[in-house]
Amino acid sequence: DFTVSGRPVGKVTPKVAERLASSGAAFELSTGTNTPTLTLSNAAGVTVEQRTKAVSAVMERLRDEGYIAGWRDELFKVAEQFDSPPLFMVERAAAPLLGVIEYGIHINGLVKEDDGSTRMWMARRSQSKSKFPGYLDHIVAGGQPAGLSLMENCIKECNEEAGLPSDITLQGIQPAGAISYECYVGDNKPPGEGFLSRCVLFCFDLWLPQDFVPVANDGEVESFFKWNTEDLARSMDPNFDDPIKPNCYPVIIDYLLRSGAISPDSPKYLQILKSLRSGPCC
Question: Torsion-angle region of residue 41: left (phi > 0), alpha (psi -120 to 50) or beta?
């Protein structure tokens, strides 16, 4: 576990814990029990600002050593729960090392066609992205930064990623719950130095006018296109030849369940429903 003042806020693999504890004064390993625990040291301070500065010094050192990639200059809140006061802030790219819960938003961009069918806008990620270049993605998705409400973040991301004016976003957006997952990520890391990715994604359905065409304002998307329900269902096949960014799959499956495209009579329906909230959801 990773704790702050005795409060568990994350899960860290042993080798990552050792690396963090040896990379500066902010972290230390408690070895008084059978399971070593990574903690913030007294040297990290007691205020949010002091802890944030101390943690940032360690993470920037690891970034400069090439251990942390995809630096965003975007701070995530670290807290016991989503609506709890922050214990400290951490760079978004560094948050997975601590195994803290990362929060984000994913938006299903939906259009009701003249024939009564519903289509979903999809995006193709830029080849310049540090993660999953060229993969398919939601029309809008992003991490939940410190200092913004969920709806403020939706408005910001919709404008940046799809050129959506705030009035269209506010008119068409509907909260649709959340999904959660926890998985081990070890690609491109030395053996044993992977980390636990623990995420909660707030889902939104955004109903868009038929004549609206998204435009990427931040350079992160190459193109947009619409898929019908059958296209979405086919894309869930593990052998589908045009893969989607992995964390979009549970959000799309959640939509297919809610829309009735996946029948309750389908095999393993309840297991699928349960798996969409398999990680901590608080």
Answer: beta
Residues 234 and 193 sit within 8 Å (Cβ to Cβ): no
Q: Which tokens sit at 21?
A: 């504890």
Cα separation values, 185 from 8, 14, 64, 136, Å: 21, 14, 21, 20
C-beta separation of 200 from 281 below 8 A: yes
pLDDT in tens, the chain (282 residues): 999 998 999 999 889 999 999 998 999 998 766 777 999 999 999 999 999 999 999 999 999 999 898 898 999 999 999 999 999 999 999 999 999 999 999 999 999 999 999 999 999 999 988 889 999 999 999 999 989 999 999 999 999 999 999 999 999 999 999 999 998 887 777 777 888 889 999 999 999 999 999 998 888 899 999 999 999 999 999 999 999 999 999 999 999 999 999 999 999 999 999 999 998 876
Q: Tell me the CA distances in angstroms from 223 to 93, 122, 213, 215, 219, one per residue in order.
A: 25, 9, 11, 8, 10
d(CA 21, CA 2): 11
Q: Are 162 and 224 in contact (CB under 8 A)?
A: yes
Residue in the block written with tokens 């297991």:
271
- Helix, strand, coil percent content, the chain, rounded in steps of 5: 30, 30, 40
Dist CA 230 CA 223 (whole Å): 21
- Parallel/antiparallel/unpaired status of strands 173-185 and 195-207: antiparallel
Dihedral class, residue 108 (left if φ above 0, else alpha if ψ from -120 to 50, else beta): beta
State which amino acid sits at residue 59: M
- Tokens at 232, concatenated: 């979405």
Cα separation of the two ends of the chain? 17
Kindly tell me the burial class for residue 79, based on how many C-beta atoms sit within 10 Å of its own C-beta (0-12, 13-18, 19 or more): buried
